[in-house]
Task: inverse folding
């Protein structure tokens, strides 16, 4: 019988509500209802992977907490994932664990950073990951629940709760909800995963932590350099820039990516252009008290030499500027993301059984 | 019989509270060798240095014998560093807990020092007492006393940091000794 067949006769909404309330009372929810996890449900998730349930896939030494495959599966059930999403959850988690900040203080940070999860390959269409309109969500179960599963793992298995060990001053809007499929079909460039060495036709996940996001709406120029200039201005803003350099990313909409490609730009030349042009002069940074950087942290200085241009990106490597293509082809609106610390530059294969 | 609802936390019990949460204290700091552990947060090194100077010049401490900077501010102090402080010092001052992970980690550091036999004074800003207290609870030392200072510390000028050191001094001395009047 399908859920629909039994929905009006056998499913018990009051029992479901009681079970959900129990989860709230235990402190296991991110604020929205969770699916209470049962042994049979978790076993369905574990059956999608060859990995052993007791394999440790994350440690937070300062809190003496660990995540196992089994705990990840329980939280993925609770997030509302389907069993077949679980290999993507594991790949996203593994990709995040490659980030320096996620094994340190990142989850506890006052910045309240949000994971950015990018899915590539056939798994996008097989499992229904949105890669086009409204890609930053909401509205799509695969995108929404994979990102939420990461948040529940951090909350429950790492024990990082808001107002306790999690000290976000405000937190990033969309925290635990940013998971997007790359729009490979409308991208003029090889995929993010293939740039990281994953063979075409395979599925993989890339992930990092974000400090903030801001979109660039630019639909009336046909000049690649004017368009890139708009991105350079947003990337170079002082607001989220607190250390000597800062990594960033751009989630290009298809229209912007295609305009750049038609003008001869590939990912590497976009990065090179933005690395050279993104930043502020010392005088501009002095207005924000961020012009002086003696030991890595930006501090107020004397504003000299005023005309000196300080680049924000540490370099033009893929790990310094993540580039992906996603969204609808209906307007020139792309998202600049500011990376919390640094990005591994890696993509983790989705290892479905 | 319905299926049980599974626990997503994998949580073991927090460490059981132990009686010996703090190292034995001396009645005063006369002749004491002082260690400073800087957690890298802005102005922490300056504040600790000022406190070290005042402990020597006004409270009879012999000298500041060990100054280190934490390699990773979000993680507890490693064993080999604890061993060094234990060998080189009679009391340690550490901080400043001035961010999400470092305030919790500095509290954990204080507890580690205490359990190895070294009296410690952890400095944490008043914006992070909840996270510091939570860490103490997790480490089996609920109510672990530390010095709370007004937030923020990172924006203070050098002169203001010196004033802050002066202001915190009595509480730090009280925490590091068992002089009468020390509530803990």
Result:
């Amino acid at each position: 019988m399908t859920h629909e067949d039994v929905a009006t006769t056998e499913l018990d909404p009051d029992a479901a509500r009681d079970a959900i309330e129990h989860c709230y009372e235990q402190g296991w929810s991110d604020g929205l209802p969770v699916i209470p996890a049962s042994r049979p449900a978790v076993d369905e998730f574990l059956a999608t992977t060859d990995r052993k349930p007791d394999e440790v896939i994350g440690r937070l030494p300062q809190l003496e907490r660990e995540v196992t495959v089994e705990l990840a599966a329980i939280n993925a059930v609770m997030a509302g994932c389907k069993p077949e999403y679980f290999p993507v959850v594991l790949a996203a988690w593994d990709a995040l664990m490659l980030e320096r900040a996620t094994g340190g203080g990142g989850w506890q940070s006052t910045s309240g950073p949000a994971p950015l999860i990018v899915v590539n390959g056939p798994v996008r269409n097989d499992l229904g990951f949105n890669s086009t309109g409204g890609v930053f969500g909401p509205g799509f179960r695969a995108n929404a629940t994979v990102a939420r599963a990461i948040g529940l793992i951090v909350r429950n298995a790492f024990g990082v709760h808001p107002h306790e060990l999690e000290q976000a001053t405000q937190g990033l809007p969309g925290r635990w909800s940013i998971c997007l499929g790359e729009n490979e079909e409308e991208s003029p460039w090889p995929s993010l995963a293939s740039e990281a060495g994953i063979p075409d036709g395979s599925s993989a996940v890339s992930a990092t932590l974000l400090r903030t996001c801001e979109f660039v709406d630019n639909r009336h120029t046909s000049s690649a350099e004017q368009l890139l200039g708009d991105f350079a201005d947003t990337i170079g803003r002082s607001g989220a820039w607190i250390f000597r350099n800062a990594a960033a990313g751009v989630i290009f909409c298809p229209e912007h990516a295609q305009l750049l490609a038609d003008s001869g730009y590939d990912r590497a030349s976009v990065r090179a252009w933005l690395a050279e042009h993104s930043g502020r002069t010392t005088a501009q940074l002095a207005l924000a008290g961020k012009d002086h950087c003696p030991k890595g942290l930006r501090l107020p200085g004397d504003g000299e030499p005023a005309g000196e241009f300080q680049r924000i990106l540490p370099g033009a490597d893929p790990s310094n500027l993540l580039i992906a293509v996603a969204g609808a082809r209906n307007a020139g609106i792309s998202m600049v993301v500011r990376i919390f610390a640094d990005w591994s530059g890696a993509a983790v294969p989705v290892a479905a059984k | 019989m319905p299926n049980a609802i599974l626990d997503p936390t994998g949580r073991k019990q927090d460490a059981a509270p132990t009686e010996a949460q703090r190292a034995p204290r001396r009645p005063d700091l006369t002749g004491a060798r002082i260690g400073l552990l800087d957690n890298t947060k802005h102005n922490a090194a300056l504040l600790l240095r000022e406190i070290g100077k005042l402990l020597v010049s006004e409270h009879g401490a012999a000298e500041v014998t060990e100054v280190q900077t934490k390699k990773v501010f979000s993680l507890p102090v490693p064993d080999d560093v604890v061993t060094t402080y234990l060998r080189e010092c009679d009391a340690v001052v550490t901080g400043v807990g001035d961010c999400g992970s470092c305030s919790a980690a500095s509290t954990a550091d204080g507890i580690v020092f205490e359990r190895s036999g070294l009296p410690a004074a952890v400095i944490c800003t008043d914006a992070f007492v909840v996270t510091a207290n939570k860490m103490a609870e997790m480490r089996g030392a609920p109510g672990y006393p530390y010095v709370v200072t007004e937030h923020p510390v990172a924006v203070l000028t050098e002169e203001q940091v010196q004033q802050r050191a002066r202001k915190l001094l009595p509480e730090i001395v009280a925490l590091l000794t068992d002089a009468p009047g020390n509530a803990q």
Summary: The first helix of chain B runs from residue 44 to 59.
